[in-house]
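We give the entry.
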Amino acid sequence: MKKDPKKNTKEEELETREWIESLDYVLDHNGDQRAAKLIKNLQIHALKRGVKLPFTANTPYINTIALTKQPKYPGDPKIEWKIRSLIRWNAMAMVVRANRLEEGIGGHISTFASAAALYEVAFNHFFRGRNENHEGDIVYFQGHAAPGIYARAFLEGRLCIEDLQNFRRDLQPEGGLTSYPHPWLMSDFWQFPTVSMGLSPIMAIYQARFNRYLEDRGLKKPSDARVWAFLGDGETDEPETLGAITLASREHLDNLIFVVNCNLQRLDGPVRGNGKIIQELEAIFRGAGWNVIKVVWGSNWDPLLEKDEDGILVKRMTDALDGDYQKYSVASGEYIRDHFFGTDPRLKEMVKDLSDTELQKLRRGGHDPEKIFTAFKAAIENVGSPTVILAKTIKGYGLGESGEGRNITHQQKKLNEDELKLFKKRFDIPISDEDISRAPFYKPPDDSPEIKYIKERRQELGGYLPKREVICDPIKAPSEKLFEEFYQGSGDREVATTMAFVRMLAKMLKDKNIGKLIVPIVPDEARTFGMEALFRQVGIYSHVGQLYEPVDAETLLYYKEAVDGQILEEGITEAGSMSSFIAAGTAYATHGINTIPFFIYYSMFGFQRIGDLVWAAGDMRCKGFMVGGTSGRTTLAGEGLQHQDGHSHLLAYPVPNLKAYDPAFAYEIAVIIQDGIRRMYVEQEDIFYYITVMNETYLQPPMPEGAREGILKGIYKFRNSENKEAKLHAQLFGSGTILNEVLKAQEVLGEKYGVAADVWSVTSYKELYRDGLEKERWNMLHPSEIKRVPYITECVKDAPGVFVAASDYVMALPDSISQWLPRPLVTLGTDGFGRSASRKALRDFFEVDWRYITLAVLASLTWQKELDPAIVEKAILDMNINPSKVNPLIS
């Protein structure tokens, strides 16, 4: 039906009022649920009648929880304000003093200044500490807010003045406070490194899911412990922040709470100057199935909203942009009156009784403890979905004209004396004007109401946090028998190292001591790695089990999901899988449970894609095995440039506590894994492992006698030359599948060219490199002592001839140890972009097959004046090598 043109505005207003009054009647007499159902029925009816309803995932730009639903605040607001003010002061003083001591040392004041009330309400009423009665909440603190967390720990008595004085001075003899949360450096304080933007949200999601995994598998008792993640609104631009939020809703993770500090500013300027970040995030999270709670306005807005019968104030709140709100945060009351309320005479009339000063003091919700408490309480009471709290704040709140709400505030490191006095006056800090210029720290006496209160609240909530405490007994090492079959070789059966590893994993899963602790993690490539047999053996984890009949239910190896399933089949997400690996690899500290994760993935999509998470894992003292499958640039045939990995081992070099191995044979993998479990879970070393496995099948030999030490240290002699009479000699280093090419080259060199070549299996260039560096450093610092000899030097000290190394990785790997060899090393590797081709063609292209290894030896001998160049020229022709072929490095 067309709109009646005669129907005037007054009639429409009357009609609207009648509908609103009807809804109020339903709310008053039948409650929220009946009202919601009625509105839903009306919506369906309207759609049936052909009404086109505009889609929106947004609610009005006001607080989600109405004033009528707001519970009474349980704490002492006055004492909490004093505590919050002291923490603000000490956090600010920490940064100011650090930059006076050392120009440019950095630090951040403004982030915590904006989030202080959010944290303090949580510390005083919600965060639960870990003790014998409760496992405690897990909290990912926003990295830039670290000064505020230190300042609170100072009032709690956990840190002293000397600690605060050494903020960002880690290398002081007495120690210091790290710039941001770093468990590697403060292993009894911080649990999670969070300052690399975007990592804490995705880690928190998978941590919350892993907590459920442990409960569903019976590894820990069910608990109401929660995972809290505090992040900034600008941080949500990072793909990792929002990329996994649907997992949280799919898994019904009501143990997860995000708190987004919406101060509307990032480092350089507004987050969404021409938009509204809170509304944008609300739509995203609501669409993903999250419970969204907006905390936009403080309590002194409530009387104005009560007057807003026609919705003109809410409309103005919605129409104003974040860029406008940033301006209002630093503007005068007169400006706010004219530019915010002055857009409509009815709005201006609404605030006629408020002074300009009162207008200036209209608070945002993220600075109002009552509004924050209401949101947090609703979050922990929510059932069936994760919660995100979008709290509107002002960046640099309390810094005054020097930084509050301004674009430069993120970089604010210093305050002058006048600014310190204003800060002191605003927050009533009991420091004299004579002392103010020093920006001294302040802590009330232990018997003061503030200190008593802060300690009582934490005692009531179970203890202090952040706190990292390892309460975990060593495991019993798996027996030697578990790995024995891999020491024997495969006989006449060709087996890929991937197949050998999967067989090893299956046996470990059955082991009575460690089987239940194994956590296989796969990003949707289990069948690629031949792991489908494990589906039936241990099942794929699903919190709801399997609610459908799988299409392959009639087959032996069907896709089996189960509540107590052991495999974490993460889908196509290396970042999510690595986050699960981190949760499992730190469970010894977080939960006191020695879970042993095996993260199996396409090796190309590891360090190259998720290097930041790998670095975070190292910082967190994570344990476990990263297993790079289908590795080697020429071993993964056909897949081409994007998939063929020839550099992951080089990318593993920088991570200090990561052991990296490129084994060629099943027995090498068995030795490495067995020793890794011993070191990480029996000896409790804070290390983790990267092991590459290949999909090329070949005969797996038995383990040579005495090889174990060399396998673990990085090199051992696999096969001596049988030519005892030869005058020409060579030492050949091989790794991974390329070791087979080296062995063929050994035969050709001996049979055709009279070169006695010994073959060495190099399992880890990184281990050899680290050992060499350590020995060199010791020798430099102890010039009068007997020199220590690198392991690689000791191994080859009597080895005759030239040295040639070949691997399926970049040449920088072997070159990294060349300085500790007695003679120059000629290196062959796979530098350059990959190609779609067969293994044979790829090894020709990258010049790492047996022919090029043979050529490298012969050429080296000519350079040493031991062989006529004419022989090399003939060898090039005989082996059909094209000297004019393109250089793979640059083609």
User: Anything to note?
Assistant: The chain has a mean pLDDT of 93.
